[in-house]
Amino acid sequence: MNDYLTFDKFITPVIIQILFWLGLATVVILGLLAIVNGGAVQGLFLILLGPIIWRVYMELLLVMFKIREELYLIRKQGEGRP
Fold it and tell me: Which residues of 21-60 are buried (b: 16+ CB within 10 A; e: fewer)?
């Protein structure tokens, strides 16, 4: 718990995973709704490419937090050296 209170560990990566799954479901539902409403091409485009684009966006957000974690570990290793 101390790691969360001192911001040594983030909860955002977990939130990003939850947002990914919610966004994925939303993209697929919107694609299906577009198909039902007469936009077959747009709906298929959204269903096929939407999840890929959404995944790339979420991964970019997650990479920022992974970089921060690695820099934190490097700093912790360097603290013991003169």
Answer: eebeeebeeebeebbeeeeeeebeebbeebbeebeeebee
